[in-house]
Amino acid sequence: MQWLEETFHVSKPIIAMCHLQALPGDPGYDAAGGMRKVIEMAFADLDHLQNGGVDAVMFSNEFSLPYLTKVRPETTVAMARVIGELMRFIKVPFGVNVLWDPIASIDLAAATGASFIREIMSGVYASDFGLWNTNVGETARHKARLAPKLRLLFNIVPEAAAYLGDRSIADIARSTAFNNRPDAICVSGLTAGAETDTHVLSTVKKAVPGTAVLCNTGCRLDNIERQLAVSDGAVVGSTFKVDGLFENPVDPTRVKAFMEKVKVIRSASRAVV
């Protein structure tokens, strides 16, 4: 996919998650450590990810559990502060994800100059967060007003949720591509860190051959070759953490080992071509 290589400067890019700690207003916020602790932890993770060779980073409020589908202003503002303080250290293309609110994600992208967002932007779901509705027409118009060049990564298999309506994943992918012209479609497992079903990835890729398809969760050292054989790239979070656990900080050794394998996979792919 041409835009992927133009944005990330490689084929089959690895977009690493920089998970921000709980923010002001979140149930898990560390008031004693305050925003300074959030920024320090984000800086450490960003440093390890970039030194490990990832192709891009995506900042998300991953520890704002339980998530809102319409976030409060303090969350977006806090994320903008973190990214603003880290801006001079960011060396790779970056994106943002304000969970689970595409309008707020676009706001944050416009304020920080992010290249892309990932969100649930279309569909209606039964989820752990209640009935989850979207308004993709409003999202598209908001993007057109604030950030027309922003790339939209549509997650069509949201974590902890099921599509309301008896439609196959192939049909959902086709209609999403036709109606919304996404820059990429993301395919996920059940939760953060849960492996994405390769068969589902393949089904989506065949349904929308002209659209980039990204593996969105559960990529590991032992499955990344299989996942990249089908997908056009991957979003990677938990596998880069200490012991591969979502709750832990980034482990630089795991990042380097993973990205070295990705480089081997890319070299082999170029040799075949």
TrEMBL record:
InterPro entries cross-referenced by the UniProt entry: BtpA (IPR005137), RibuloseP-bd_barrel (IPR011060)
Similarity-based family: Belongs to the BtpA family.
Protein known as: Sgc region protein SgcQ
The species this protein was found in: Bradyrhizobium iriomotense
Lineage: Bacteria, Pseudomonadati, Pseudomonadota, Alphaproteobacteria, Hyphomicrobiales
Gene, per the UniProt record: sgcQ
